[in-house]
Every structure is written in structure tokens, then in C-alpha cells.
Amino acid sequence: MTDYDLSQTALRLEAMITAANGARRIELQPQLSQVLERMARDGHHVPARLRSLNAVLLDEAIEQRFDNLPV
């Protein structure tokens, strides 16, 4: 992927995640994480808002796991 393709993919995922409900947001997190990792690995700037969104999604995924644990 080119720089432009990675950026466009990240922006598309951001829009999809913003519009999605909780479960779908968590499903999209691995894709976002992969794109951000590739951007960073290739030496591209990763916007803070995308890093923050990824962190929020990771928190949501962890919280969902604990919500589903039997007590």
C-alpha cells in the first residue's frame, strides 16, 4: 500500500468506527490497529486522534470481556 492508501484506509476505518455500535466498533479495532502499525513501521505519521481511537477501542474490548465473565 502507498502512503495515500494507508491514510485513506485509516480514515475510512475511522468513519466506520465512529458510525458503528459497540460490537461492530470492537470488530473493526484489529483492522485499525494493523493499519496504524503498518503506518508507524513504514515511517509515516500516525495522527494522535487515530492512536487515541485505537486505545479507546482496546479499552472497550477489554471491558466487554470482563462484562461477559460469570460472577
Write up this protein.
The chain is mainly α and 71 residues long. It has one domain (3-67). Helix content is 80%, strand content 0%. It contains three helices and no strands. The chain has helices spanning 3-19, 22-41, 48-67. It is elongated and about 45 Å long.
Query: Overall pLDDT, averaged?
Result: 92
Strand tally, please? 0
Distance between the termini: 46 Å
Query: Largest sheet at a glance?
Result: none
The number of distinct helices, counting runs of at least 4 residues, comes to 3
The H/E string reads HHH
The rounded Rg comes to 13 Å
Could you tell me the strand content as a percent range?
A: under 5%
Fraction of residues in H or I helices: over 70%
Low-confidence sequence ranges: none
Based on Cα principal axes, name the global outline.
elongated
Oligomer: single chain
Structural class: mainly alpha
Quick structural summary:
With 71 residues, this protein is mostly helical. The protein has 3 helices and no strands. It has one domain.
